[in-house]
Amino acid sequence: MSNFRKCVVLLSGGLDSSTVLAMAKSQGFLCHALTIHYQQRHEVELESARKVAKALGVEAHKFLEIDLRTLGGSALTSDVAVPKNRAQEHIASEIPITYVPARNTVFLSLALAWAEVLDAADIFVGVNAVDYSGYPDCRPEFIQSFENLANLATKAGVEGKTRFKIHAPLSSFSKAEIIREGRRLGLDFSLTHSCYDPTPQGKACGSCDSCILRKQGFLAAGLSDPALEGI
After folding, report:
1. CA dist 158 to 83, 115, 143, 203, Å?
2. What is the per-residue pLDDT across 37-73, written as a single tens digit (0 to 9) for each?
3. Cα-only R_g, the chain
4. Burial class, 43, CB count within 10 angstroms (exposed 0-12 / middle 13-18 / buried 19+)
5. Domains in the chain with CATH codes
6. What is the largest CA-CA distance in the chain?
7. Phi then psi for 18, rounded to 5 degrees?
8. CA quadruple 144, 146, 150, 152: dihedral sign
């Protein structure tokens, strides 16, 4: 791979997407970060995305605003309660109410549009299929299918100008492995936010599925999590 290729990185401000941004940077990509404000319950993550993008030095950081609350169907886009204090085996046993219908399909479509405008062939996304909440749009099969779609549904792809590649480098990583990789790349974990149901002050709740998976990941990695200190 030659250095200095442009890419689009979907950056939520969470641990996984921030690690992926650091990975793309380390591979020599000129990173264009895309953050989606979809009226999520945990919109505090938007400020984390801004801080991470600044700290890692992206070429550009674009915020797009859409309103998935008008569709509902998820605890993250409605007033439905976020599940708390679930065992890890329970978290992975079903698709939870925090699943946002078609979210990654929508997000990747927006990233694809920007990539085509930028004449960039590479899109990075922080999906994970090991220590995660069972979301169907985090699976490798979905990523491969979307890559096929990207090359069928775009002018650049049809004309043979660009062969789009969807990079999901964390797909087979455990949460502990993600954290170790982020640390190796110098990621400041205190800038990231993962909680689904933060306090009014923007602090992590410590008991939602995302907080539990993050907490267990740091424990397994032998590190302390600055975002969950005192929780």
Report:
1. 44, 15, 19, 46
2. 999 998 899 999 999 999 999 999 999 999 999 999 9
3. 17
4. middle
5. 6-228 (3.40.50.620)
6. 55
7. -70, -40
8. positive
